[in-house]
Design goal:
Layout: H1 29-43, H2 48-53, H3 55-61, H4 69-74, H5 78-83, H6 92-105, H7 112-118, E1 138-140, E2 150-152
Antiparallel strand pairs: 1-2
Helix pairs in contact: 1-6
Amino acid sequence: MLQVKFYPRDPALRGGWELNYTDLPIMRYAEVLLINAEAKAELGKLTQTDIDATVNKIRARVGMPALNLAAANATPDAYLANQYSLVTGANKGVLLEIRRERRVELACEGFRFDDLYRWKSGNILAKAPGGMYIPKLGLIDVSGDGVGDIIILKKEITVR
């Protein structure tokens, strides 16, 4: 199933693209916030106040935990560090987190190729896309809060 953004959830309001009341965004506020955070981090001028006004504002909207500048820089994500090996310096951890945030927030909006090229990480495109590792069938806690978030069921396929 493909992801569809900016389309009314209420079927009564869906009149097709020409009759739809929802305008397609030219530039999203979340993108502006992420650009601001990334630029300040690259320049070495990023503060926790900046993180709170940008990345954490986006995360708070969907109930995600806040990003802590000192903690992110103290322990950069090893997977992201391997993926973006050119990221170095005092803000390495937070830059990696901003890159993750861009990928999640701007998914399916046409930014990925430009981001990878800008970050000199086009080699990521050479890797075959992978899926999500599912350790078992049944109820799975994805968020780590002890409550099951998704359930993976086995479906028998009958060939006729």
